[in-house]
Amino acid sequence: MLAEDRLNAIVSMVQQAGSVTVPELAEALGVTPSTIRRDLQTLDRAHRIAKVHGGATSLERAHVTRDLTISERSDLHNDDKERICARAAALVEPDSFVYIDSGSTTLRLIEHLPHLDGVTYVTDSVLHAQHLALRGMRTVVLGGELKPETEALVGPDALATLDRYNFNCGFWGSNGIAAEQGFTTPDIEEAQVKRISMRHTAKRFVISDASKFGMVAPVKFADFRDATIITAGEVPAKYQSMDNVTTV
Amino acid sequence: MLAEDRLNAIVSMVQQAGSVTVPELAEALGVTPSTIRRDLQTLDRAHRIAKVHGGATSLERAHVTRDLTISERSDLHNDDKERICARAAALVEPDSFVYIDSGSTTLRLIEHLPHLDGVTYVTDSVLHAQHLALRGMRTVVLGGELKPETEALVGPDALATLDRYNFNCGFWGSNGIAAEQGFTTPDIEEAQVKRISMRHTAKRFVISDASKFGMVAPVKFADFRDATIITAGEVPAKYQSMDNVTTV
DNA sequence: GGTAATACGCGCAAAAGCACGCACATACAC
DNA sequence: GTGTATGTGCGTGCTTTTGCGCGTATTACC
Q1: Is the CB of B23 under 7 A from strand C?
Q2: How confident is the model over B118-149, as pLDDT tens digits?
Q3: What b-and-e string marks burial along B32-71, b requiring 16 or more CB atoms within 10 Å of the CB?
């Protein structure tokens, strides 16, 4: 097996499981733990995974639990997210201008995006931008101040840039989804970016697993009717029949 | 078998399998590993496949080792760069607005930057922005299109943002430094960003090891007199005595 | 809070992979 | 026939990768 393939295999294992231990990887790939550690170091430097004590986690998870070791490995919504992203990615059309919001779900979406002609992706996340560029996509980044926790760009520069753009379609994550309170998120500044970016987009999609239904976060960034929701898993009955909710 | 046919066969094998090893190809095509390596070199230069240690992969899969180029390069003039960066970092003053250009030398600079009150760093590189944020610096990113090779932002959005800013000081890298041709870089778009950012900066510093003196790259972004050069190593005699050249 | 277990990084040596130069062979032009 | 250009195989020395051992750091458990 090519070393390059091994690195890719590690990345996809980490992406899929959320986190893996060094012995697990060594066993699965037929090399010694030493080699795995070196690989993890390489991938960490390349910002493709996050190396932690005991193994590696996906980048998205590392932001929430930066210094924690791999003790709990609950990736319940994993399969769901895969299906959601596959469906959402299929909605991108050739020659379109597409907005990608920051967040862990949309990061996963990027891995599923097809290579279509004439598509430009715009994002407010430097992390997402790197992944897009890595996949060979034409990528534009909003300007602005970088929030260290989420690697998202906020502030007047980000909003001013958005004001000049008009997107064919866009994909957002949301911490809360509720019929009355709409789509909500914990951060005021990020909410602003989400709100303005949505305002400049023709076809708006919120991608989320079922656990967010009924949740409400501090700041609202859009009305429930403002976007089509692509989701999977056990959606509460109340939402299942709504015509802007697509369950895959 | 014609050499041309063999090259095509290699490409289609790589495309189909995603990756292959040198011995596999040699076996399948009935030639020696030497020939295969030469073929891979040819195809890599033509950007039809990506040559990696042990074989080749399709271009899409190749990104793991690809973006190590910056970190690899940064090991070259190691000691010199450390000294240069330490000296340059000491030039940042409290309460200032500082521009950091993209490039491997300026990336190293970031590790040396002090934690001063009231300092905001602005950069055109998403990679640099991440490192700044990781170190707890207040970080602003220019908007614009992301160039995959260098992770730098270019284009009208980047330039428009720069037009609104005025920096107290700034640090740039340069591929070529020559008395007559000035500071030069290989890329037209990046040169534009460098040029405009310099125009909005009061104290301009180019940080570079001695190897760049006398070199000329395709596009000029500033006159030789426009910046103070901080360097180390064996600077050509001609440049040693110039009053905007500081050797550490 | 102390101790055992695990994980880590570093240096070393073997093995695999690599570039480079040289020799030969085939092909083509004059 | 001679000369030149291109392609291929092979040997040599160098680089990269890998596994292993050991001292140190981190985590888990009582």
Answers
A1: yes
A2: 999 999 999 889 878 877 789 999 999 998 77
A3: eeebbbebbeebbeeebbbbbebbbbbbebbbbbbbeebe
The DSSP H or E segment spanning B28 is: helix B22-29
Amino acid at A215: M
Separation CA A231–CA A210 (nearest Å): 6
Q: Which nucleotides of D are covered by protein (CB under 7 A)?
A: 7-11, 16-21, 26-28
- pTM metric for this prediction: 0.70
Block residue for tokens 């000691």: B79
CA distance A235 to A84: 13
Which residues of chain A are at the B interface, by a Cβ-Cβ cutoff of 8 Å? 2-5, 7-8, 11, 42-43, 45-48, 126-127, 129-130, 132-136, 138-148, 151, 153, 155, 157-158, 161, 164
State the nucleotide closest to A22 in CA–C1' terms.
C7
The partner residue sitting opposite B52, judged by closest CB among A4, A134, A157, is A4
